[in-house]
């Protein structure tokens, strides 16, 4: 038997219940993992609430974890029992002590990346790679705006952008988060509850605005994101922690400077084995070179997944949150 968090009905964090489940058997092309650390992300909240529909109820949430291969199914010759691996990809089911995964969705971990670090950075780090180098290729000297700069993706994104040589403006909720964001690559921070974000961005960029805005907040930030962009700038909407962003009348993009808008999802950018390994290795290289430090201050036992969700949703966390099996 294994332990897994199960959700029988959509709702609040109280729906996350630890249960005993049968240990699965890997089928063709799959491996069985013994997991040690599990990433907690807003996408898990979206599945819990029903914003993103799961395959069926009940289900086990989660899309990010690290652990060890303990059995391989037929046809798997690229992985072996005892090998450490990590992932940040569907199918859902990561909140478990053991689970099966498609072998081609797993990334072997190098010796200098431990499980705890991997589970705290795979989804967030490969998202940062996507945002900075695939959705748009940010260059040295570019100005960018990162909402929720002290969050899990935000801290990695700011460091990666700074390593490229970009000028990073980050929005944060308080002075403590501002200090953390500045220590992780932000050139300037803006307190979104106390300052006019777009006005501050214009002041910091000589009135020009930024080349790209990275917005994981959604409803409460869409207007300021659009108003912070330079002509022909790109708004990258990749989350909605404050709720779904409102609809945009297409003509607004023209009136505000021939702007671009995209809503990327990581899984469309790591959909092939080659693109997955490329993104993972780019992340490992930045961490290995000391350009990115993973801030993983929040760990919870698997049984306390509900408490982890509560902390994440109430913005009590900074950096990455993980569950420990």
UniProtKB/TrEMBL annotation:
It comes from the Bacteria. Residues 11-323 form the Enoyl reductase (ER) domain. It holds the Pfam family ADH_zinc_N. Its EC number is 1.6.5.5. Keywords: NADP, Oxidoreductase. GO terms for molecular function: mRNA 3'-UTR AU-rich region binding; NADPH binding; quinone reductase (NADPH) activity. InterPro entries: ADH-like_C, ADH-like_N, ER, GroES-like_sf, NAD(P)-bd_dom_sf, QOR-like. CDD domains: QOR2. It catalyses: 2 a quinone + NADPH + H(+) = 2 a 1,4-benzosemiquinone + NADP(+). GO terms for cellular component: cytosol. Belongs to the zinc-containing alcohol dehydrogenase family. Quinone oxidoreductase subfamily. This is NADPH:quinone reductase. The lineage of its organism: Bacteria, Pseudomonadati, Pseudomonadota, Gammaproteobacteria, Chromatiales.
